[in-house]
Design brief:
heterodimer; A: mainly alpha; globular; B: alpha/beta; six-stranded mixed β-sheet; binds adenosine-5'-triphosphate; binds magnesium ion
């Protein structure tokens, strides 16, 4: 077995473009669930509208990348408002249901023949990243440092996306140490108590949903910058599931929890892919890989429910 | 004068010192309460004077009501949990709400504080129509309530719980929150106020502990202190003394009275008749959702309807056994 190859690819993916993209989306999800207690089971919906916002603007309407990014951000805001305004006054479960549905509805809608003239439907929309690649300052070629190996375009995506992740983490840090963050956490702990102290719970939930949604949308933008041609089926519910794994793995309600989670997740995920591929050559091991990720999540929930960075004592306070 | 001035030295690190000084502190407490009672007479008389000419009958009108409820009702299926024809609460008084279990006291709280929607009826607070306003809006307008089942924010520290209560915080707005110098000074002031209150409620040693680690009684105290951080015009306390030890109860009562003397109107739901009779300026008795009696403690003590409704069930029990 080619252990060197397996580890090389696992280590490369650990901090590769996908790890960065998932980390960014998970920072948004962490704001929703980890800090506000919002049950968002459709973070992929924000990634989808982010990716298609920029994709449709750039490919279908030949606008510049910057307009595309603006469209992506606005689309994320609109999705957050559409999801949030009717459901955030209701019990938490309603947002959960609405977000699950929204992700699937959007995927099917963008896949449908009606929208084909704009989204190119199942045939895929691309290339979305010409302008982005033109901005790449790193000379063409493949770069290697020990086991880490990337193309120049992957490095460019990594550079931009990890920078965005760092900015997002700083933003969350600044917010959470402020009185604004205090209100957000009080909403997570007990909505009624927050309201009894005069806090506009609905307003804070909406702000959180919008902000975390925009981070998801930006993750979608970087996703399409990486893969260039996107298909609606890239945005299936599995993505949201992985994001939840990442957030829980790192520790919900911790600033860099999603980053730690994304790095570990992508190492394991890539390792399992390569390992199972070598173990059963030619077999389709995709399902086994996901099953093992599920198993790891279960073990984590049993032995370290607060995640890598979380405080188990704090976790236990929830159960009274 | 506020009881703050008379409070003994800081209690930080009280856990160690506590056990030795329990006797001492109870003695101090008694002294303080006695001392307080003398003062109380003055303040109480001010509140009582305002109510002197008020008839002791359900729905009587008060000279300067802060809260006026008209035909407020709340129905749960076939059960009419609250059916208040007319109720006024005099500004600046300590008004007690009494009544048997299930009389509708908490439901009445829920309705007027905006946490529940009435089946019918309107109510005015500070002369302003409140029906239809959200709970947070009502709280911001100065009517703050606590819950019978405590709502501590478990994964936040006691101090954070307290500081959340302060109103008009610039740092609670999204953009200013990102720039610390804008809200730092205000936050410090709030912290000082929070620390003072924690001190008063014997919670200073829990300052940096998660509220979830607190005992039931401590959570009750924390919730009451947190409500005071809002500095409301009307404070509605739903059984604040339930589960709090007797010595501390005395000091809390002192605190509630001091609050009243400082101009805050207090509505208190409580089952302990001794407490009720000793501290309230006015008593409202609920039974089966209705106000069956109102009056000064002396009026209530001798009121046959109250005795029947409130104590009747208890009296009936031994009688049943005799048969
Ligand atoms: N959400 C609800 N659904 C159905 N019935 C309710 C609900 N809340 C209260 N009730 C009923 O309304 C009546 C009044 O309840 P409430 O809690 O107001 O009583 P209370 O006077 O506060 O009693 P206690 O002194 O025991 O706290 C009770 O009979 C109760 O069963
Ligand atoms: Mg009650």
């Amino acid at each position: 077995m080619d252990w060197v190859g397996i580890f090389s690819s696992a280590l490369s993916d650990m901090i590769g473009p996908f790890a960065a993209i998932y980390a960014l989306a998970a920072v948004g999800l962490n704001l929703h669930f980890g800090y506000t207690g919002l049950l968002n089971f459709g973070q992929v919906a924000f990634m989808l509208v982010g990716a298609y916002g920029v994709g449709v603007a750039v490919v279908t309407f030949s606008l510049s990348l910057w307009w595309g990014i603006l469209v992506a951000i606005l689309a994320s805001v609109v999705v957050a408002l559409i999801l949030g305004i009717p459901t955030l006054r209701l019990r938490g479960d309603y947002l959960a249901i609405a977000t699950i549905a929204a992700g699937e509805v959007l995927r099917l809608f963008f896949n449908s023949t009606y929208t084909e003239p704009v989204t190119n439907g199942a045939f895929g929309l691309g290339p979305t990243n010409n302008e982005f690649n033109a901005l790449n300052p790193i000379p063409n070629g493949t770069y290697q440092l020990g086991p880490f190996q990337y193309t120049s375009s992957a490095l460019w995506v990594m550079l931009v996306t990890w920078s965005l992740v760092a900015l997002a983490c700083v933003l969350v840090f600044l917010l959470m140490r402020s009185p604004w963050g205090r209100v957000l956490r009080s909403v997570r702990e007990d909505e009624l108590a927050a309201r009894s102290l005069g806090k506009s719970v609905y307003g804070y939930k909406l702000q959180s949903l919008v902000l975390g949604g925009v981070l998801g949308g930006l993750a979608g933008v970087m996703y399409t910058m990486d893969i260039s041609t996107q298909f609606p089926n890239n945005f299936d519910p599995k993505v949201t599931f992985y994001l939840w794994v990442i957030m829980t793995l790192g520790g919900a309600g911790r600033i860099i929890g999603p980053v730690v989670g994304a790095v570990i997740f992508w190492f394991l995920f890539s390792f399992l892919g390569a390992f199972l591929g070598e173990l059963f050559p030619g077999a389709n091991t995709g399902a086994a890989r996901i099953a093992i990720v599920g198993l790891i999540l279960m073990l984590l929930m049993v032995f370290r429910p607060a995640g890598i960075l979380g405080d188990p004592e704090e976790m236990r306070l929830e159960v009274r | 004068m506020r009881s703050a001035d008379r409070n003994p030295g800081p209690r930080a690190g009280a856990t160690a010192a506590q056990s030795e000084s329990v006797d001492e502190s109870i003695a101090q407490e008694r002294e303080r309460v006695l001392h307080h009672e003398q003062e109380q007479d003055l303040a109480a008389s001010a509140a009582a004077q305002a109510l002197a000419s008020v008839a002791a009958e359900p729905g009587s009108s008060k000279p300067d009501p802060i809260l006026v409820a008209k035909k407020v009702s709340r129905r749960f299926g076939g059960l009419l949990a609250v059916d208040v024809e007319h109720l006024e609460v005099q500004r600046g008084t300590l008004t007690a709400l009494i009544g048997p279990n299930g009389a509708g006291k908490s439901t009445f709280f829920n309705v007027v504080s905006g946490f529940d929607k009435p089946t019918s009826g309107t109510w005015r607070f500070n002369g302003r129509e409140m029906a239809g306003l959200s709970a947070n809006r009502i709280a911001r307008l100065g009517m703050v309530r606590t819950f019978q089942l405590t709502k501590a924010l478990t994964r936040m520290t006691a101090l954070e719980n307290m500081m959340l209560g302060a109103t008009d915080q610039l740092g609670e707005h999204f953009l200013p929150s990102l720039i610390r110098p804008l809200w730092r000074a205000q936050d410090k002031q709030i912290e000082v106020r929070a620390d003072n209150l924690l001190e008063h409620f014997n919670l200073a040693h829990m300052r940096d502990q998660f509220a979830g680690t607190m005992s039931g009684g401590q959570r009750k105290l924390l919730e009451m202190a947190r409500a005071m951080m809002v500095q409301p015009d009307l404070l509605m306390l739903d059984e604040p003394m339930a589960g709090v030890n007797p010595a501390l109860t005395q000091s809390l009562l002192g605190h509630i009275q001091a609050l009243r003397d400082g101009g805050t109107t207090v509505i208190l739901v409580e089952h302990d008749m001794d407490v009720i009779m000793s501290i309230s300026d006015w008593i409202v008795c609920f039974a089966e959702g209705r106000v069956i009696a109102e009056g000064r403690p002396d009026d209530i003590r001798s009121n046959q309807a109250v005795v029947d409704a409130y104590l009747g069930s208890q009296r009936a029990l031994p009688r049943k056994q005799e048969e």
